[in-house]
Write a structure and sequence with these properties.
Layout lengths: L2 H12 L6 H13 L1 H14 L6 H17 L5 H14 L6 H16 L7 H25 L7 H18 L19 E2 L4 H6 L4 E2 L3 E6 L5 H21 L5 E8 L4 H13 L3 H5 L15 H6 L1 H5 L7 H15 E5 L14 H15 L5 E9 L1 H12 L6 H20 L3 E6 L2 H4 L24 E5 L7 E9 L8 E6 L4 E4 L3 E4 L4 E4 H7 L29
Length: 548
């Protein structure tokens, strides 16, 4: 006997035999006659049903479930027989007289089993066994199909849900709300590395929280998401150099831009290299060194140069950035443009979680840990998910509105980390002036997008000076923070607070503080304070709608 044949025989010997007819009958009898068991089994049986070979059981359960839905009580044997006869009468040609008699006999057998033989534990064990066989059959069917199913990610997600439901059926009761060993635990706030964000988040982002970033088209959502992700990676690398026993990783999932543009943006920010210097040349031979700094570098690092410090050139800064990004940052192309995997990006939050798990497993030798996840952006993620599953467009807003909760359940809670997700604002918000800030109910396609977010941060439209309003319209663990103005430094992909600008509410525009102080008399407008500092209206700055 060959090694392969012996392994197959060993595998067969370890497999559990299928349920016998009598074991299955006792299982179904327990479900039909015990309401608690019925309620636990009903969701799976309604969605998946019995195997084709068990058509009799499937029909009997369908009759019982229909009665339960209408009367909120399990049917007796006589009721099942009556309603079964009515169902068969309405389908005169569907079953032969002999088949109809088989149905009736099976009902009588199910209700003739003594109560002492209907153990809850036995019923649940056999039900889990039976449904596990059904799940394995679906897996085999999918794996044996020719080609790759178009809706494979959705199929795998459904199978994962079924497997989780089976585990829950036989799990222990819900634990006490306060077990003996319970103690209050810090939520684990860590600075984002972006100072103005930390002011809105009471010090930074926290484990298991989900943050939304909403903005119009072509503002700074992607640069800010990358800034958050890269600053996280930088902090994790510093912890690693300080002797941390684990390597923290920031995962960035991009559904809009392919990997190469993301690489350019990220290295431009991380190394402070003018983006045009990277986009207009091949290779890195043209990059500056510490001995031949360019004019923009001399201006950028003027303070360090005046202090006599050595400043690395573009090439040196790039090498330094690549070192920590390669260890602590993992961008993932979810656009489907990568030829090796066109289906990448079609599985929603569960796919994100699975990709993280696989990457952590591959890097197990360095003791990795997922510390931060950013998703850019929600609309594109749901669009790919629905296209792959051939789902109706009418349901788009429902899937989009649930996406933050999916990210919380499958990513933030599982990996014990903060998650950021960007999304677009609607068309009306894109048409607003730069001095007005939108609200989270202005999210494109789904007004309830922020329902399950812990914080929702909003970006206004961009002014000619590359400035935007920035504020928070939802915050679960902080007091309201007044909106501010941020500056977009596009050549480096860097976003910072523009403290030298303010809103002139009289002219409905953004102006330099110095200009305002020079032209404004304190008694003219109570909307500005007497020191010339910006005094912005509370959120939302847009007019409320009638149905809000």
């Amino acid at each position: 006997m060959s090694r392969r044949e012996s392994e197959q025989d060993a595998d067969k010997s370890q497999r559990r035999a299928s349920l016998t007819r009598q074991q299955g009958r006792i299982m179904l009898a327990g479900i039909l006659r015990r309401e608690t068991l019925f309620n636990m089994a009903q969701p799976l049986l309604k969605s998946r049903g019995f195997a084709d070979s068990h058509e009799t059981w499937d029909l009997i359960f369908t009759v019982a479930a229909s009665h339960y839905d209408q009367h909120d009580a399990l049917p007796t044997k006589s009721i099942v027989l009556t309603e079964l006869a009515s169902l068969l009468h309405r389908s005169p040609g569907a079953y032969s007289p002999r088949r109809k008699e088989t149905f009736r006999k099976e009902v009588k057998l199910l209700y003739s089993i003594p109560e002492r033989d209907l153990s809850d534990a036995y019923t649940l064990e056999k039900f889990q066994w039976y449904m596990s066989e059904r799940l394995l059959a679906r897996v085999r069917e999918a794996s044996e199909a020719e080609g790759t199913p178009v809706a494979l990610p959705q199929l795998l997600s459904e199978m994962a849900d079924d497997a989780a439901s089976l585990v829950e059926i036989t799990s222990d009761d819900i634990e006490l709300p306060f077990p003996e060993d319970w103690r209050p635990k810090s939520i684990g706030v860590h600075g984002t590395g972006v100072d103005f964000l930390d002011k809105f988040l009471r010090g930074g982002h926290a484990k298991r929280e989900v943050y939304g970033l909403l903005g119009p088209y072509n503002t700074c959502k992607t640069p800010l998401m990358l800034q958050i992700s890269i600053e996280g990676a930088r902090a994790f690398y510093e912890e690693y150099l300080s002797g941390s026993s684990e390597v923290g990783i920031a995962y960035h999932f991009t559904y809009e831009e392919a990997l190469d543009p993301v690489r350019l943006r990220s290295i431009s920010y991380a190394a402070l290299i003018d983006r045009e210097r990277l986009e207009d040349h091949d290779g890195d031979e043209h990059l500056s060194t510490g001995e031949n700094l360019l004019d923009y570098e001399k201006e950028l690092f003027a303070d360090a140069l005046r202090a006599g410090q050595r400043v690395a050139g573009e090439r040196g800064r790039m090498q330094r950035a690549k070192k920590y990004l390669n260890l602590c940052w993992k961008p993932e192309d979810m656009t489907g443009s990568a030829t090796k995997n066109r289906l990448r990006g079609t599985g929603g939050a569960r796919e994100i979680a699975q990709l993280i798990r696989c990457d952590l497993e591959r890097k197990r030798s360095i003791n990795p840990r997922c510390r931060l996840v950013t998703v850019d952006y929600a609309g594109a993620a749901i669009s790919r998910f629905m296209s792959a599953g051939d789902l109706p467009l009418a349901d788009f807003r429902h899937y989009l509105g649930r996406f933050p909760l999916e990210l919380k359940n499958h990513v933030a809670n599982v990996f014990d980390c903060p998650v950021w997700v960007a999304h677009q604002l609607n068309a009306d918000s894109n048409a607003r002036t730069s001095s007005r800030l939108s609200h989270h109910t202005d999210a494109a396609e789904a007004r309830n997008f922020a329902e399950n977010l812990d914080f929702c941060l909003n970006i206004g439209t961009k002014s000619p000076e590359n400035l935007c309003m920035f504020g928070s319209s939802k915050n679960r663990r902080t007091k309201r923070t007044d909106p501010i103005i941020i500056r977009i430094e596009g050549q480096y992909g860097r976003i910072s607070a523009a403290e030298d600008w303010m809103v002139d509410v009289r002219r409905n525009r953004l102006v330099p503080v110095s200009d305002f102080n020079r032209t404004h008399r304190p008694d003219e407008d109570e909307e500005h304070d007497t020191k010339g500092l910006r005094k912005l209206p509370p959120m939302p700055l847009s007019l409320p709608r009638n149905n809000e």
